[in-house]
Design a protein that fits this description.
This protein is mainly beta. It has one domain (about 5-130): Deoxyuridine 5'-Triphosphate Nucleotidohydrolase, Chain A (Distorted Sandwich), CATH 2.70.40. The chain is built from 1 helix and 11 strands. It has one helix at about 70-75; strands spanning about 5-10, 30-35, 40, 50, 55, 60-70, 80, 85-90, 100-105, 115, 120-130. The chain has a 4-stranded antiparallel beta sheet with strand order 2-11-6-8. The chain has a 3-stranded antiparallel beta sheet with strand order 4-9-7. It has a two-stranded antiparallel ribbon with strand order 1-5. The radius of gyration is 16 Å and the shape is globular.
Length: about 150
């Protein structure tokens, strides 16, 4: 059977004791993504990339959205400054970083926020997408995080 969609641990975190994401309830749409290592998100408003140690595989017409957990802004003062992270199918196993998922985080609490390894930081939702008539996209990903915007 061909794998359709899921998560894997990247090589550099193979022996780090990370868990693959899971949904907490039968009707939940999102998979809880956890931090792969301790990190401090500073109060100065700067954006930090939080490593997850994970990569995601999916079908060519699917995308993985990274979305704030409801407790992130309210309880911890953490937000995704890009609102929604977008992981494209061709990000998987890219040569720059093996497709490791990083989460942009910013503190809006006015205080430094400590994230510990294993803390749930975002939820991830697989979604199919449509393309417009006469779409001619033929480019090939050559980089890792943020690479499609570097043209």
């Amino acid at each position: 059977m061909t794998k359709k969609r899921g998560f894997e641990i990247v090589k550099k975190f193979k022996d780090a004791g990370l868990d693959l994401p899971q949904r907490e309830t039968a009707n939940a749409a999102g998979y809880d993504i956890k931090a792969a290592a301790d990190i401090t998100i500073p109060a100065d408003g700067s954006i930090k990339l939080v490593s997850t140690g994970l990569k995601a595989y999916m079908q060519a017409d699917e995308v993985l959205y990274l979305i704030n957990r409801s407790s992130g802004p309210y309880k911890r003062g953490l937000v995704l400054p890009n609102s929604v992270g977008v992981i494209d199918a061709d990000y998987y196993n890219n040569e720059k970083n093996e497709g490791e998922i990083f989460v942009q985080m910013r503190s809006i609490s006015g205080q430094d926020v400590q994230i510990k390894k294993g803390d749930r930081i975002v939820q991830a939702i697989f979604i199919p997408f449509l393309i417009a008539d006469d779409d001619q996209a033929a480019g090939v990903r050559t980089g890792g995080f943020g690479s499609t915007g570097d043209k």
